[in-house]
Amino acid sequence: MNEADVNTTCSPTDGIRTLYTELAIHPEMDFGWGKGKENARRLGYDKRWLESLPDIAWESAAAVGNPFALGPLRSSEAVVDLGCGAGADLCIAALLVGNAGRAVGIDVTPAMIAKARNVAHAVGLDNAELHVADMETLPLADASVEVVISNGAINLSAHKPCVFKEIFRVLKPGGRLQFADMVRDGADEASSCGSWADCVSGTVEPQRYLEMLSAAGFMGSELVALTGYRTAANTIGALFRARKP
What we know:
Strand order of the largest sheet: 3-2-1-4-5-7-6
CATH class: Alpha Beta
Shape: globular
Structural class: alpha/beta
Largest sheet: 7 strands, mixed
Strand content: 15-25%
Number of domains: 1
Number of helices: 9
CATH architecture: 3-Layer(aba) Sandwich
Order of helices and strands: HHHHHEHEHEEHEHEE
């Protein structure tokens, strides 16, 4: 599948907002894919975060991998979480970088941003900020952050090369991109417009991500591992990392 196929299948944004609003408000519902604290535990999240963050941080968390397994976050760094959802990864990032650093959450779904603000407040974080925004037009200055993380969100964009260009723009020289995402596992293509929000129709093969990262200017791009997380028989979670020269 090429990027033109992904872009023209359908416009996913409305479906994404609808589904993830439901996930924010009704986390007890069965959405057909893994979520919550036990899902995060299976993906290798550190026990200290699973036990110290409030349940509200995990109940709407649909992690597809563990971006923190890709490299450490350092004290005083600025970190951006793209598609931050209810804020579990954002809170972990904020705690890791400390009060001298900052963690910025970006999500297109207002209900998720509202929930993430509540979670950050419950954890007592003064270094977390949240914005309702699209990943393709980040409300951040050029070369302003050291790290960008994401978890199951970039595949939801119909314009992935634009997302990677934006990430490249906001990263400082030497900055790192660490993300977990759903990728195509096999040659079959999904054609259902409704499956965009379920991380199916928007997926591409891992090599396409590596090509997009290279085209955006990143170096050292690599597929680190597959996570075993699935939203369909032909999709699977994957961990990627790259750096800005």
